[in-house]
């Protein structure tokens, strides 16, 4: 892979120059703990009675750090790694892989540290300090630059280590906890603290090879998270974050404090459905087909999708409908389409579902699961599709006493991820929330769904004939009769009728607002009149806020992008998928449709209808519950009085 204009090469010779120093750290060094509790991990077991596991080493702690909180502990990572061998005296291939990955990650981190020092005044200040000529006025700057270098080296070490080990991860997962011995006095000490703690984690968790890899990778993730959090308040980091660094031999790209995960596809075991096997649900099916092709326009070099830049990309959507109307079938259809397109183009595709089994009774674990789910799907190195089925059971309403702490954690994570201050929509992934009871979803979380897919199932006589024929299969001799099979599922004709139906509101509450505003201003044919209609909706439902307007305008932009990306573009990637980003933008721009008043009115009504439907259902459910409870109270009181009199 060649370098792009915004990438800097981290030269291989600069990395290999640090191999000897990295190997020395693996063999052993002394470290006096300063933050973490010392003695939390046991020594490496002796190979034979009286023969120590490793030689004693002279301390390499930098001279800048003179205060010791505890006695130094010898860290011998190579010996620690081979302990996880179930009694085998020979190093296993996986153990060798872990050791080489750690050495490589240390060398990359040191090389990045050298590059950072050369791009800042740090190199000159180091030389001046070594010669005793450091001006007193620059001591504060020197300390800040050393801290910045330590943060860069620590994060790059964790980033490279997690990246190199990701192909070797299996089904085993390990929770290693937060990194404690995180030191930022200088780069050397930062790595000493990190390797000391890695040694401790391996002693605690790595009982076999699978746990060895899982523990090392989990520690690398935690180290990255700690470094990224500290970097938010640190100075002098622009020379590192402003550029992209490329390690060609490992196909590794370093982008500031962003993890560089391996672009691996998830193995899908679901049963895929063809579009003609989805009966009814015309608008939902239509938008799912469009979205699947939109995702494929993502440019892996620019890490941006033309649809996300031009408008019309659906980042989050809500699919709601009664039980049995086809939400699961819709997921199977969309995942199948994306999987087929990605296989044809050679793109990595990652599908993941967040289900009720991800809610954990352990405090904080549910939030961690939700964050890991979001990060896996957001990975800019893959095409991602994340689904949250039965979200009303998974994400709790804020203030709802019946929601568990884990459900509240999940709600907070999803709200931040889907429309938070740090949310970046690259256009490589989409999240679908599905529910039979969307009125039970927290209002703010539900409004973060930029598009609404009404999953209403079969509606017409033709729909029911089609679904009966589909589910019966072909192993029968019952005649079809006077019917054009699947003709009603022709998407263009069905969708046109579905959109036209939203020219007027369908919910009674919204229809009253429509009639009142129409009587005041007449036909809704200007922005001012449309704005008056929106204000009328807000007066009827105070939850209709600025986010609702954004969702409506996003939906209108989707309609402006309402064109069929030719199937040939998906079948022959050279026609579109493998073109450069600017060419893709120009090709899409040529197909864009003008925005009309009819589009805006239809999308306002579609969105507002769904909100009124949710509100009405929510109120009715609450009222029904209260009525049932009052009936029980009356029956209980009557039975109690009868028993008392008897």
Automatic annotation (TrEMBL):
GO terms for molecular function: ATP binding; ATP hydrolysis activity. Residues 321-454 form the ATPase AAA-type core domain. SUPFAM superfamilies: P-loop containing nucleoside triphosphate hydrolases. This is ATPase family associated with various cellular activities (AAA).
